[in-house]
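JOB MANIFEST
job_type = single_chain_structure
chain_count = 1
residues = 271
[input]
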Amino acid sequence: MHLFTKICVSALREALRVAYILVYETEQRRIAMQGEATDLYIRTFSFWKHLTNKEKSLVNAGTHPVRFVRGAQLHRDPGDCLGILLVKEGQLRVYTLSEDGRDVTLYRLFPGDVGILSAACTLDAVTFPVSIEAVADTDVLRTEASVFNRLLQENIYVKAYAYEMAARRLSEMLWRMQQILFLSADRRLAIFLLEETKKAGSLEIHLTHEQIARYMGSAREVVSRLVKYFAQEKLVKPGRGHLTILDLQGLAAVAHNTRQLSAGGKGTIDG
């Protein structure tokens, strides 16, 4: 009996030791993630230095790391209020649906970008319906909508930042819609390729024709035909799943409508 008691006591001590280690490691991970979030927020959010210590603690407590797998739908209508999304890794696509069911890409979010329209329910003047999907496996820091809404009500610097960001995103969306409505497909493709080159910091663009069409708000067949014309003009070199830009100045000329494509390339393809 005495031996049995000793064994039980020893097992209990070991269990307590393991539990303590697990609790300690969990707390250390929480502190590390909180520190990482704070560091990212300091670098990203201009309002951070204007928060009180209480407000900073509120943000830290209401911010969580979330991973969205490729293809995941994060947000579909104004009723979906995820909160603020700060992209750490991956890519998100913000789009809207036309009456005929075609999705139109409005803009994309890359590492370091902030998703403000996912918290549109907290912004009284912003009611534009958008959807958000993960283009790749994406890690974000998500600040709960309730937390962000409280900051909006209590801190003028947070409110100013939120509406400035919303205005910037709405301006991007308006520019995208203007392109679709008023620019020919060849100019839109040239503009898109120039923008992608700048984002990537490379002349290699690793996108399929299907992806380019989706991001442009066009059809794959239109993009494929235009890429062929651009290749004939020595503007790009097509590859499997990628494009190499050969002539940046030539693309810029097409984008600004100061260069005409050869037969069949200009004005005959819309979409």
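[summary]
The first strand starts at residue 63 and ends at 68.
The chain has two domains: 46-180, 183-255.
exit_status = 0
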